[in-house]
Amino acid sequence: MTATANPSRTAARPTGGGLAARRAVIRWAVRLFRREWRQQLLAIALLTVAVTGATFGLAATWNLPPSSDATFGRADQLIRIPGDDPAALDTRVTAAREWFGTIDVIGHRRVPVPGLFDPVDVRAQDPAGAYGGPMLDLRQGRYPTGPAELAVTDGVARALRAGLGARVPFGDADRLIVGVVENPADLHDEFALTDPAHANRPQSVTVLVAGDHDTMEAFRRTVDGPLVRESRPVAERTTLTLAALALATVGLLLVSLVAAAGFVVLAQRRLRQLGMLAAMGATRRHLRLVLLVNGAAVGVVAAVCGTAVGVAAWLVTAGFVETAAGHRIGRFDLPWLTIGVGMLLAVVTATAAAWWPARAVARTPIMSALSARPPAPPAARRTAVAAAALLAAGLTALVLSDGSNPLLIVVGSVGTVLGVLLASPLTIPALAAARGGLPVAVRLALADLARYRVRAGAALAAISLAVGLSAAIVVGSAAAEYRSREAAGLGNLADSQLLVRIGQPDPVIPERTAAEIAALHARTDTIAASVGGAIVIPLDMAVVASHTDPGREGGPTGHPAVEIGVPRAAGESTTSHPLYVVSPELLRLNGAAGMAVDADTDVLTTRTGELALMNIPARGVRPTVRTLARSGYTGLPDSLITPAALDRHGWQPARVGWFLTADHPLTSAQLATAQELAAAAGLTIEARREQGSLTALRTGATVAGVLLALGVLATTVGLIRGEAAADLRTLTATGASRRVRRTLTATTAGALALLGAVLGVAGAYLALAAALHRDLDPLGAVPVAHLVAIVSGLLLVATGAGWLLAGRPPPSLARRVLD
């Protein structure tokens, strides 16, 4: 009998089982994930933490930037008009109202308050104004409605030491505090609010208007006289959030490299199962699909859990973020679309992390898979060449970047990281080769590491990456802190010093009688006694007694104080510094005790370059300068004018304050007492301002790096020791003690921890040295304590945990545990 095959039906039959086979493989992979989810807790935890950080970071980045509502309210443009000429001020405000129609006028007047350096901004603002609503909010009480009423921010209330319902002297009259207000878009904006209908003549006015830039320019051309115009800046909120998403993507990619070590462990654990699947006819594509589905499942779980935890963390900490940001924050004002993209990225990166282990397992011969034989490690020469090429390319890109080219920095960082990751497994055989002369248990543990180099190398690369990121943050923050301190010096003052001034800092010094000075000196002595018997150094400034200055509006008249600064062309602004009359005490304070001053020297100063005397009737007076050594403190009286210069110019010394220095750091209680005494006497005090420190960042990076590396270690060491269970059973049967079992696990964990820590720190320093090669001084500020904590902490914790947790004997000496 003859049979004819149907070629069309044969050709239409799908190869490898088609869609039905893929569905079956996917269902099996999901069941495996549900059954073995405990073995994947590390990868899930790592990705969950990354998604949590990304979600929280996106929420914070979305809400942290300052809002232009703090200045513009709901307006598009603002105009600042000086109030020196009341008639001109009224004319310009009327012109703005006629030109724009609806406007919102806010008057400003600066009122000195005892105990504060800066005068308080008293605003005459209508709470129901057309555009200023977002700039004003009532927290307690009510808005002022009469000439004797005042509403203040909490900072001004603290300075006045008065609360709601108190009557305080303010400016030229007593005022009743009827409300507590704030600028919701800028919580650091301290001001007092008065009723616009009963406010004093303003010193300046802000006019809020709607319109575009061209309309504003057209109006500007119709107005004579000076006015300052500003346009609402373009919102940077979206740009910053996208930048945060890009940063979160990089973080997820790096975490996926760490998670890849967990997927290597999982692939090796399932090797026999996958071999059985291949023996039943599964193709390589099916085998890859098993692990890819597992990676996607891990990503989905991590994305959902991480997003939920991140949003919950945001809701809990939003109040603290609000305080740090300095403006009110809507709790659910979040970039939900961007957060959704972050969740999708988590799934994609988890799937990508599972791809390489899936590819390697799919290529494993069936017999090797069924016997669970560890795959042959790749040729060391090929890996070494690739690692060297990537390291060279990465370091070259970082050198060429000069620490400022973002593209080269990214390329160089990625190349260096990949080079270190590829080089990490090559160190395992070198460590195993040096095991001669060590105890048997140690030699066996190191031999097992070399035997299982593929999975141990993946774990070592992940540990190196975790430690390297941590070390890079630690070393980089130390370098940044070094540079910032170089730029800012040691701060304004030492923590044992106080600078006491008479009144507010002002280049116009009013005339004071000897009795007034004596009374203020007595008050200063009281302050010195309250902080523990500090030494009091009088501070005099040179004033031009032949010239009278009217001072600021509302302030006393006086004589201009001579200052020093860098000369500028006419119409340009510059920064000037006060000149104090030289005295033996001030010379000692500046480290120049007993210095002989020449008669022709005008100024002793720590400042360098071209200098000129300023705030005097004559322009371009260049003094004869002698340089003092820098102390590092920016608020120290370190610019001194000599008595000979006073005689040459006919200037007179005038008492402006006192400098107090104690022999011990001042406590917060002493500072509070000193400020109260100064405010009661009409004096102001400058104390040390705390400098920002990145120590907390370094500590957090250290702890995070060690914990992440320990998580990778725990899974890897457990797998390696599990695969070596046959050796352990043999050792136990031949009489090996519990100590031997402990030594095996402790050595495995300690060796991986030590190699990973050394490689990670070395890689971080290589990358930073390449990026900062033109100025390596910041890297000289080595954060020894944190680096020692990373290396020794990881080594000790890993070794100790391995020793403590490995004493239990194997459950069976004769039977191999089945999968």
Automatic annotation (TrEMBL):
Main location: membrane
Superkingdom of this protein's organism: Bacteria
Cellular location(s): Cell membrane
Membrane topology (UniProt): Multi-pass membrane protein
GO cellular component, one term: plasma membrane
Occurrences of domain ABC3 transporter permease C-terminal (ranges): 247-365
One matching Pfam family: FtsX
Keyword Chaperone listed: no
Keyword match Cell inner membrane: no
Keywords: Cell membrane, Membrane, Transmembrane, Transmembrane helix
Stretches that traverse the bilayer: 41-62, 242-266, 287-316, 336-358, 379-401, 407-433, 454-475, 701-722, 743-772, 784-806
InterPro entries for the chain: ABC3_permease_C, Macrolide_Exporter_MacB
Chain coiled-coil ranges: none
One Gene Ontology molecular-function label: transmembrane transporter activity
Family matches, as PANTHER family: ABC TRANSPORTER PERMEASE YTRF (PTHR30572:SF4), MEMBRANE COMPONENT OF TRANSPORTER-RELATED (PTHR30572)
Family: Belongs to the ABC-4 integral membrane protein family.
Protein name as annotated: Putative ABC transport system permease protein
Source organism: Micromonospora cremea
